[in-house]
Design brief:
It contains eight helices and 14 strands. With 250 residues, the protein is of the alpha/beta class. It is elongated. Bound molecules: S-adenosyl-L-homocysteine.
Length: 250
Amino acid sequence: MSEIRLIINYAEVSSGKIIELSKGDKRYLFNVLRCAEGENILILDGMGRSFSAKIVDKNHIEILEENEQLKEDKLNLILCQALLKGEKMDFIIQKATELGVLKIIPFISERCVIKKTNKIERWRRIAKEASEQSGRLTIPDIDSIKNFDELLASINNGILFWEKAKISLVDVFFELSLSEPIFLIVGPEGGFSSDEVSRALKKEIKIASLGNRILRADTAAIVSLSLVSFLCENYVIIKKNEYNIEGKSF
Ligand code: SAH
């Protein structure tokens, strides 16, 4: 199968169709990946289907047939990330996409330095490129920005990460439902206020620590996603073996 992957708007893709490439896709195929005419590539529709295709010329590709056997392992994790300064959100969106996140919800909380942004379209582009790079069949959604209370009102089955929490992630993980999306909530550079933490608790969001050290928000986002996805993927094994680490049964 071709190593070259390109994601094209799902509405356009069907077998036998010739598709005109967008400017961005042309740049990606010919300048970045140095593809040649006649080369076979893999087209993903961003909604879970994949097709083999051929580069016809510098402007067109032809969709050949659908690959039925490719299916993405769906990870039901949604990252809720408070807005961060500079390029940190770009980094989080790229890495969270590689780690298989289903959706990212940016939000504004009390201590956010940034209170609005016009970067949503840029983040959607980053998610598309990271999906292509990592061979995902779907692109994670980047939601529009919510404030903290709107966020709390729209979620359940979540964990808010708080550096002052006494309870570890492992202890709250097994209280979550794995059959519905799990929301992971990470704060801004200045952290959450204790008032925000108690509002989340009232909504039955779990509060958990990621260890004794204070992580930068971008580190915390990646670590929380990695750890929770690992726990989800190994849930059955962990349960079966009844692991007991440092006196903690889980
Ligand atoms: N301003 C705070 C730290 C905020 S860290 C201080 O200096 O004390 C930014 C975000 O990362 C936090 O809101 C939290 O969601 C997450 N985070 C960082 N370290 C963490 C830890 N050890 N446990 C849980 N969450 C952590």
